[in-house]
Amino acid sequence: MEGKTLFDKIWDSHVVKSIEDGPDVLFIERHYIHEVTSPQAFEGLRKRGIKVFNPERVLATPDHNIPTKNQHLPIKEELSRIQVETLKKNCEEFGVTMYGLGHPLNGIVHVIGPELGLTQPGMTIVCGDSHTSTHGAFGSIAFGIGTSEVEMTLATQCIMQPKPKRMRINIEGELEKGVTSKDIILYIISKISTGGGTGYFIEFAGSAIRSLSMEARMTICNMSIEMGARGGMIAPDETTFEYLKGRDFAPKGEQWDKAVEYWKTLKTDDDAVFDKELTFDAADIEPMITYGTNPGMGTGITGNIPTLEEVDESSQKSFLKSLDYMGFKPGDKLEGKKIDYVFVGSCTNGRIEDLRMFANAVKGHKKADDVVAWIVPGSHKVEKQAEEEGIKAILEEAGFELRQPGCSACLAMNEDKIPAGMYSVSTSNRNFEGRQGPGARTMLASPLTAAAAAITGKLTDPRTIL
Known about the structure:
Layout: H1 6-13, E1 15-18, E2 24-27, E3 30-33, H2 39-48, E4 58-60, H3 78-94, E5 97-98, H4 109-115, E6 124-127, E7 141-144, H5 147-156, E8 158-161, E9 165-172, H6 181-192, E10 200-205, H7 207-210, H8 214-222, E11 231-233, H9 238-244, H10 253-263, E12 276-281, E13 288-290, E14 298-300, H11 316-326, E15 341-344, H12 346-349, H13 352-362, E16 372-375, H14 380-388, H15 391-397, E17 423-426, E18 441-444, H16 447-456
Parallel strand pairs: 3-4, 3-6, 4-5, 6-7, 9-10, 9-12, 10-11, 15-16, 15-17, 17-18
Antiparallel strand pairs: 1-2, 2-8, 13-14
């Protein structure tokens, strides 16, 4: 009998029923919900006269639509206000725990799950949000679902899913100074494209991955979805256990010891076979920046946009359309290009380590006068920590302002929108046309690269300011 992958071990242990030549019925241990994809799901339950099957496995938090200033005031945007109010009403009616606006535990759903210790190794986790893959950093199977599936999970605590194929991506060796986990994932997507992971669940492995902190691992799994994968995961280890120990909802005492004992079994067997395996050298990765309108259009900060000859003929039309939207030309050098906005935050890079990284880089410098910068913590816990650690003070000294938590300028659903034609260096996960506001031009980067741009007013290699 050949060995099993980490993915297979968790998936197989959660299958309630296998449908011949069809999907598996999968038991879901943790269900996160927010205000955007849950209203119709609750309405469906209401129409059918049924309850939430297992409310203690569900946690709600508003995040997409909330303002990041004056959260004590009523929400100005009508649609946003209605969605947030509807979530509150639904949670009250169906007995679901919700950390609402202003609650000390409120924050972006993919930030608060891990920081509260609700996300744990070996779990199956879903949320009506594609970046649910973030939670896979703990050695869990986590993926985004659609609204009808949100309803299915609320009603049954199960979901019907075809089993994806397995891929392993190894990053071996040591990262260079100034290279972060965000650069690793942007590098991988630039190499395998936004469709390279389609049909697969990806396990990230190798010495460079093992050397990362939990928060850095979350950034990698967060963006696994951007290469078309169903999700990404990293095997739990001492780093994982250390992170979880003592958190609000993590097991305690004897339960903790039992949990860790089980968690230690969650790794791919040596003789397990993947459907596909890729290996990259950490030394080849430099700070990355995107130049197009999907996360795969990226290059090292010192590199150039590809020339037309370097682009596959079948992709040339979309490549040129993308550059046209961005106001760039094939072969352009990126370093030195002027920028207008910097956004640090989102479920990709809104954690305390991201803010620390940004603050350390801007310390002793001043924000460029013509740059608008939004520094948005991923949760109230992160916001509080940033104040206690003196990060907020460092930011203010350098001319930045720490806003209140929320998804903010990651997606143009709230008040934080990038104006048309403006260039934004963003630590979020998507640079699609109009993603940060109609006509906004987004370049994805790490918090370090964002810091370098914020103080110089142009695209700058962060290694020059460290």
